[in-house]
Amino acid sequence: MTRYLDGRVAIVTGSTSGMGIGMAEALSKAGARVVLNGFGDTDEIEALRARIAEEAGVEVAYDPADLMDPADVAGLVARTEARWGSVDILCNNAGIQHVALTEHFPVERWDAQIAILLSAPFHAIRAALPGMKARGWGRIVNTSSTSGLRGSAKKSAYSAAKHGIVGLTKAVALETAEDGITCNAICPGWVLTGMSRPQIEVRAQQAGVSYDEAMEQMANSHPTKKFVTKEQIGAVVAFLCTDAASQITGASIPIDAGLTAK
Ligand code: NAD
Questions:
Q1: Catalytic residue among 4, 62, 158, 211, which?
Q2: 198 lies in which domain range?
Q3: What is the pTM of this model?
Q4: Residues 2-33: pLDDT tens digits?
Q5: How many whole angstroms from 185 Cα to the centroid of ligand 1?
Q6: Does any ligand 1 atom lie closer than 6 A to the CB of residue 143?
Q7: DSSP readout, the chain?
Q8: Are residues 196 and 185 part of one domain?
């Protein structure tokens, strides 16, 4: 791979697990220095940081910002600018899930999902835009979902936040269209991660089938009958950071194995 992101600095939120790792791997292999973010075991995060840095031959850092806290989100951007001079690529990817009928949905879970999935991207974009505009270059990639393109029953907060991020993406894209900045959303289908695996367990229990059978059913909900992989997600995100993608902005791009074609 050519190192077309040499000299660029990327933040990937929620990159201690799942598809954020795929994004960090792809961006670092294209030459970007990457700040990882998310929760997890300290030793495992350090091993992940060191592995990605070694495989890509770039500096990789870790910032433990809690995206529930708006000041910490702004701090993540400020600390990255202080560390490496810029934030050129911002991937708003961290997420949590809660599945319940709306009338039983815990208010605290609603607030947390809106905070992490929708408000945190706003706070991060707000903090990163002045530097991107001053330098005349920026790439913002927001992780939405197929639930940002159509509703998902028992996921009212998730559907609301993921539709919301599509709107935020369009507004920011229009505001920055003449500034060398693009802002896009990706809308993945099922990817096997820390978020989807517990949902497979619940499906298995509810349907009285094994975990593997529930996993197969989930894959079969895709027209391709296959899961999307975190590597495929990372590759699309890295493509959105190329010059070839400079006219793609304000888009919500399904990476969903054909799901929303139905
Ligand atoms: P994951 O659970 O594997 O990873 C989530 C990441 O977010 C972790 O690194 C976690 O530590 C981090 N995180 C959670 N709360 C945080 C907080 N308060 N502050 C900082 N970091 C926090 O899940 P994933 O599937 O890789 O999810 C990544 C994104 O993809 C999410 O936005 C999710 O909604 C979206 N998505 C997932 C799927 C799927 O099938 N897995 C499909 C479509 C969209």
A1: 158
A2: 191-227
A3: 0.98
A4: 899 999 999 999 999 999 999 999 999 999 99
A5: 15
A6: yes
A7: ---TTTT-EEEETT-SSHHHHHHHHHHHHTT-EEEEE--S-HHHHHHHHHHHHHHHTS-EEEE---TTSHHHHHHHHHHHHHHHS---EEEE-------B-GGG--HHHHHHHHIIIIIHHHHHHHHHHHHHHHHT-EEEEEE--GGGTS--TTBHHHHHHHHHHHHHHHHHHHHTTTTTEEEEEEEE--B-STTHHHHHHHHHHHHT--HHHHHHHHHHTSTTSS-B-HHHHHHHHHHHTSGGGTT--S-EEEESTTGGG-
A8: no
